[in-house]
Amino acid sequence: MCTATSLPIMAAMNTYTPTQRTKVRRLSKRAVYDKAQVHAILDEGFLCHVGFTQDSHPFVIPTLYARSGETLYMHGSGASRMLKTLAQGVDVCLTVTLVDGYVLARSAFHHSMNYRSVTVLGRARLVTELAEKMEALRIITDHVVPGRWDEVRGPNELEMKQTVVLALPLEEVAAKVRMGPPADDEEDYALPIWAGVVPIHTQLGDPVGDGRVLPDVKMVERSRFALRTGKDSKRD
Ligand SMILES: Cc1cc2nc3c(=O)[nH]c(=O)nc-3n(C[C@H](O)[C@H](O)[C@H](O)COP(=O)(O)OP(=O)(O)OC[C@H]3O[C@@H](n4cnc5c(N)ncnc54)[C@H](O)[C@@H]3O)c2cc1C
């Protein structure tokens, strides 16, 4: 049973606490700290941009990620400058952006985009424990192509050594979401100008084999990729 005192505690468990760095100031009505909504955005995306500084110089590098509970995993070659720098525990800003539509208003000023985006601040941890590293690689693989891990040859010892896995905790997190039609100034609704939303959808093409697929091997089904775009959070 919920008591008056347990309600704020439950709310805190279900939301990320905004900090000085993650408090959305511009159009704060679009801010989202609800964990379920943040997870849904992270689970729908698979590409993030990781910002960090090295020798006082900023870099922003695109890379794949996947979520497990309150952790984001990234992976790559042990030779990667990005991963080697992050493994040292430097400050990181990771951003995921989903674009949902062009928002066309009657005035140039009120044009916008419909979007869902998340920023995560923190420091990544180098994953050294073999079982966690293997599980992270499975999660990343299956996040990009659901079910792929079980049908491919898994990494051998040398491949595991050559691969770096990092874990970034979801602690300092903010999301921002814009939905719906444009908001024109009242007098502009009298103008003979089309206004509304042009939705943006990601479309998959037909799979193209690499020319060396053995006979009788079934082609990958496109429908498998669509599973990732479900609105539900899969890994709470
Ligand atoms: C969709 C996508 C998914 C990716 N997934 C992964 C992943 O899961 N793991 C992984 O390790 N890498 C991934 N990459 C590659 C990644 O972006 C980096 O190229 C790679 O990690 C090497 O980083 P680095 O800092 O060592 O590069 P360095 O070679 O040290 O970078 C030197 C410079 O090269 C340029 N550069 C590097 N990468 C890029 C880039 N992608 N685009 C434009 N310029 C670049 C930048 O100017 C950079 O400062 C992905 C890239 C894309 C676009």
Explain the overall architecture.
With 236 residues, the protein is α+β, with helices and mostly antiparallel strands. It has one domain (9-229): Roll (Pnp Oxidase, Chain A). The protein has 6 helices and 11 strands. The chain has helices spanning 6-14, 35-44, 81-87, 130-144, 157-162, 223-226, and strands at residues 31-32, 47-54, 57-64, 66-68, 71-77, 91-104, 112-123, 125-126, 163-169, 172-178, 196-199. Strands 1, 2, 3, 6, 7, 10 and 11 form a 7-stranded antiparallel sheet that branches. A 4-stranded antiparallel sheet has the order 4-5-9-8, with helices on both faces. Strand 6 (91-104) and strand 7 form a beta hairpin. The chain starts with 5 loop residues before the first helix and ends in a 10-residue tail after the last helix. The model is unreliable at 1-5 and 229-236 (pLDDT under 50). Bound molecules: flavin-adenine dinucleotide. Residues 47, 59, 61-64, 75-77, 80-83 line the site of flavin-adenine dinucleotide (FAD).
